[in-house]
């Protein structure tokens, strides 16, 4: 006998011997399956579970990954609200719509689209020894409803969007060849969880059809462990174990439970414990307390110590073996604060809205989630909220490992298309989904918060959610609960997630703090919190947009394509500004980062605040295209702010300065109250905060606030900074920088000369073009035309909502809420701005101008006319907009400012200084416009 044959025989003998000792055996069902779409629901009537299909697909996978479905067309039925159903007739989109190459503007576009039933059939071989065992069909991440037939007999159906569909198919199998048929339906015909829920909506992950995780058969002995629940006690350093055991035999049994654990990051083993039990036929619940020892390690964001717990159930043989992860931690409330293991926690969070642009569905492997959570931590965050969906097991495992606090929701945004608490099928679905989620993922230490879902609708949602919260608070104390994200603030809640504490709210438009109030850093949300003493996390703060990064298009190598970006790029090119795409991205990105800094610092300044949830750290590609991330949908940087820069204002420890204003006149005194938000691992016992006032790299003033003990918490006052600005008769930008150990933060301030009433007598400053002024221009005069809000005709820019901030969410989804623009773009070295220090983008010194301005639309003007200061328009309209531009009129020269630089100047130092800078330019030889415009075209701008 040859050596290879001997080796093969020994291998088979060893495998058989091992199999006899192994209580669990698995058949991997991944690979090729027969496939057929069933758009007319004929399959069950016509016994498709007995058919051989000519088409095949690969599982795990989605239909679109397998090239199945229909081409996208104008009449494609989408899952998700479209606020402009006739979008292709909109003049902003119509020029770029092609019936043969649809470019859908509101979200990423799948290569194929199908909503309905689809059948997946596979022939398998069952070993003889499996017939006396309990066999489960495991389907991880099914979308959405699955119905199962085994050998032409219907087993059951399931519809969880969050957890694996697991079927006991023991009684349906036979030895030898068997046929498994799975009908998957991704419609909402039976249960409407809300058409915009991120668990199902085309807005983000896409409403795909398929199975994308583990697909397998698992056989167990007749007595097996159904589930393990682990309840840690940090004070006793123990874990109470609740073992759900099913005994399929007809006999009472005496069993031993062998419990062991190891610390996964160190490999440290905990001494094995043995517990004796008697079990009866059917369901059994066995409880035991497992001592973790005096040196047991706690789990939190700084020390994510994860224990792997293994329970082996034995009789005369090994009946079953199951392993789960858990952490020794306690997450709860102490007044308005969250605490973990008795230490204060401030949640610095972002949403994850099921955004997976390559696959269209969430990953079921750990590595992709490690990329997500690495980006989260790199930007100083410690928390992720899953908006109206629940991630797969792999996300929890990665969060456990990396110390991320998760808020999980029950796959629903019951609004718009449905209601909560009104007796609709979604009510029962929420109850079942919550039980599935807690049973499947409840041991994970990262799973610290839970809600039904997002922003409920209906007349009775409060009653429903009160019952929901009370049930789970009494059922499982391993996490905290709230009814919903957004509202209502129920008295039963462990915590609230509310939209009031943020600098721009839905519908505030130009009346928000950031757009209507003078630049400062001395406000917080103390007056926006309910007085019930319950922790408040701010709901979906930020939502600040940035111009699209068209270089991102090449990243979309999967099933979702950025046809919206292609459309926007074509529009920009059609408006003769294609070369400015990168500049628009960078300028609007700098403004976006400024807005996020203001939002986050306000939260950190608020006494007793529990945290914030950003919408979002990365882009949200749906709901009209909401480019709200400093990262793209792939969790990668866009190039205008680094993680290190972001962590200056978003971190465990953030120095803060309260400034009543940021714009000063020479001779005034800067008064800054310095404080800190410190939620690190431990208090600072003796640390010396430093401050410095700089002009570029030159130090103007500096000092120390003395040795300090800084406790955990925020609003800890460190001292005052006072500096009087000397009279140097020159405008300048200064930076106030505060350093606390390794943590640094800074704020720009601007100082302008006191005597800034200088005039240029050779230049007329006017607010309208009357006959005298026009003749003066024609005769070779110089004119500075100052406009302002309401001065420009609607067709020439007067209908454009100009504000200081970036666009909130996007205009397509907010019914065109203002502002409509993305800040300014300019050349800081242009001589017109010589006495108005600026970067190429909007910073706080532009807040006044943008709050007193109309945009001037230049689309009808020669394309060679280049504004001195551009306004960056919305990516949908891509209009050529100016804040300041110049032109020849007759023999004269005209400088036009869309911002008011004439009125109320005594209270507007920025406007005074901008006026001086523009007048200084007009008297120079450099004021020599190259483009000639007729009088009629200029007058068309003015109302």
From TrEMBL:
PROSITE patterns in the record: PROKAR_LIPOPROTEIN (PS51257)
Stretches assigned to the Glycosyl hydrolases family 2 sugar binding domain: 29-219
GO molecular function, one term: beta-galactosidase activity
Pfam families linked to this entry: Glyco_hydro_2, Glyco_hydro_2_C, Glyco_hydro_2_N
Reaction(s) this enzyme catalyzes, per UniProt: Hydrolysis of terminal non-reducing beta-D-galactose residues in beta-D-galactosides
InterPro entries reported for this sequence: Bact_Beta-galactosidase (IPR050347), Beta-gal/glucu_dom_sf (IPR036156), Galactose-bd-like_sf (IPR008979), GH (IPR017853), Glyco_hydro_2_cat (IPR006103), Glyco_hydro_2_N (IPR006104), Ig-like_fold (IPR013783), Ig-like_GH2 (IPR006102)
Source taxon at top rank: Bacteria
Keyword Phosphoprotein tagged: no
Residues making up the signal peptide according to the UniProt record: 1-20
Residues annotated as domain Glycoside hydrolase family 2 immunoglobulin-like beta-sandwich: 223-329
GO CC aspect terms: beta-galactosidase complex
BP GO terms, sorted: lactose catabolic process
Enzyme Commission designation: 3.2.1.23
Keyword Nucleotide-binding: no
Annotated Glycoside hydrolase family 2 catalytic domain residues: 337-482
Gene3D superfamilies in the cross-refs: Galactose-binding domain-like (2.60.120.260), Glycosidases (3.20.20.80), Immunoglobulins (2.60.40.10)
Assigned keywords, A-Z: Glycosidase, Hydrolase, Signal
Assigned protein family: Belongs to the glycosyl hydrolase 2 family.
Protein name: beta-galactosidase
Annotated organism of origin: Maribellus comscasis
